[in-house]
Write a structure and sequence with these properties.
- The protein is of the alpha+beta class.
- The protein has one domain: Jelly Rolls.
- The protein contains two helices and twelve strands.
- Strands 1, 3, 4, 7, 8, 9, 10 and 11 form an eight-stranded antiparallel sheet that branches.
- The longest helix has 14 residues.
- The protein is globular.
- Keywords: Signal.
- It comes from Algibacter luteus.
- This is Cupin domain protein.
- It holds the Pfam family Cupin_2.
Length: 157
């Protein structure tokens, strides 16, 4: 819990809005740009809130997935923190059972852990992802059939 408070205290200035062009301000209230369907099925938007640089070697990206969308299996060379800010989604690490994630949940995915995360079958989800400045490693396609089996298991649909 202490780590979460420290992370939020560090990140809070990035989310405060201002009316001055002399500041670099972004808003997680915007959906961002529609993502091409390269590593997912369905509708998704990406909002690049903070991009890593020499002073801060982390990316902070908001992702929004519409209900019944998939995201392929992938991993990161650094830990990824996922903060769910709206809706309900699914999260699964390779070799573990899938779980439901919802608004207010914070997921700590350790580096090099193969996983996927996306919206639930019934609800869109929006989350803020914090991760290092290395490219995402896409490992395996998440099929619609597998996603549907997860939805059935978790929600009975």
């Amino acid at each position: 819990m202490k780590k979460l408070v420290v992370i939020l205290a560090i990140l809070l200035p990035f989310f405060v809005s201002a009316q001055n062009a002399n500041y670099q301000i972004s808003s997680y209230l915007s959906e961002g740009i529609k993502a091409p369907n390269t590593y997912h099925i369905g509708d998704a938007w990406l909002n690049f809130l903070v991009e890593a640089d020499n002073n801060f070697n982390q990316n902070i990206t908001q992702a929004t997935f519409r209900a019944n969308s998939t995201l392929d299996w992938h991993k990161h060379a650094t830990t990824q923190i996922i903060i769910v800010v709206e809706g309900v989604g699914y999260y699964q690490e390779k070799g573990k059972e899938p779980i439901i994630i919802k608004k207010g949940d914070v997921v700590n995915c350790k580096k090099d852990t193969e996983h996927w995360h996306t919206a639930s079958a019934k609800s869109s989800v929006s989350y803020i992802a914090i991760y290092g400045n290395q490219p995402t490693i896409w490992t395996e396609k998440l099929t619609q059939n597998y996603y549907d089996s997860v939805a059935l298991k978790l929600e009975g649909e």
